[in-house]
Write a structure and sequence with these properties.
Elements (H helix, E strand, L loop, with lengths): L18 H15 L7 H8 L3 H7 L3 H24 L7 H18 L1 H7 L11 H23 L7 H20 L15 H16 L6
Helix pairs in contact: 1-2, 1-4, 1-6, 2-3, 4-5, 4-6, 4-7, 5-7, 5-8, 5-9, 7-8, 8-9
InterPro entries: Homeodomain-like_sf, HTH-type_TetR-like_transc_reg, HTH_TetR, MT1864/Rv1816-like_C, Tet_transcr_reg_TetR-rel_C_sf
GO molecular function: DNA-binding transcription factor activity; transcription cis-regulatory region binding
Keywords: DNA-binding, Transcription, Transcription regulation
Length: 216
């Protein structure tokens, strides 16, 4: 009997292993390359070389796929926060706060796909994704615990809530501006290549502002 011809799958198609992981990686690649996350499960399934029915068994909707990527992003950024703490001065929580900020900015620059999923507007109003919410909560707790350490030293100039809001606004806002290329103008001249170096200066300004001034 003549040998059966092997059917060649599309480039990048799913071969064997974890289909859910393959679908996540393909969606993540799209998020990295474009701010447009309007892909469908059918499109991702086609790219993986599987039926849309097989893909739907893992992710019933695009929102479910985005949520899984978002959760994974929060877990990874929390791990990055933990690593950054090892490089900070052990008795200086303000230095630890600066290292957390740099870790956040670095993560957003290096992993734009995760970053876009983590803060996707379609996920902001969903209340029943407990795993995603818990992952986000754990990442924010790293900031909150560091802020409380700053306050416990007795030289913080503001309440923990005020310091957390200021730190969060500056770090997240800076990351958004860098990600969207909004600081690459003739006056600021900040881009992804020098973003970390410039962020170090900006976070030093933040720390100076948070520390209580004496003699006032």
């Amino acid at each position: 009997m003549p040998a059966k011809k092997k059917t060649k799958k599309p480039e990048g198609a799913y071969h064997h292993g974890n289909l859910a992981e393959t679908l996540k990686n393909l969606a993540l690649k799209r998020l990295e390359l474009s701010k447009d996350s309007g892909f469908t499960i059918r499109e991702i399934a086609r790219e993986a070389g599987v039926s849309h029915a097989a893909a739907y068994r893992h992710f019933p909707s695009r929102i479910d796929l985005l949520a899984e990527i978002s959760k994974e992003g929060f877990i990874k950024i929390t791990e990055a926060f933990t690593e950054s703490e090892k490089t900070a001065s052990p008795n200086d929580p303000f230095d630890r706060l600066q290292k957390l900020g740099l870790a956040y900015i670095r993560f957003c620059i290096q992993h734009p796909g995760y970053y876009r999923a983590m803060w996707h507007t379609d996920l902001g109003c969903i209340d029943d994704m407990t795993e995603l919410q818990e992952a986000g909560k754990q990442s924010f707790l790293k900031l909150w615990e560091t802020i409380l350490s700053c306050e416990s030293q007795g030289n913080a100039g503001f309440s923990p809530r005020e310091m957390a809001a200021a730190a969060w606004s500056i770090v997240h806002g800076y990351s958004v501006l860098i990600s969207e290329g909004q600081m690459e103008n003739p006056l600021l001249q900040i881009n992804k290549k020098n973003a970390i170096e410039e962020a170090e200066k900006i976070l030093k300004i933040l720390n100076v502002g948070l520390i209580k001034r004496t003699g006032k």
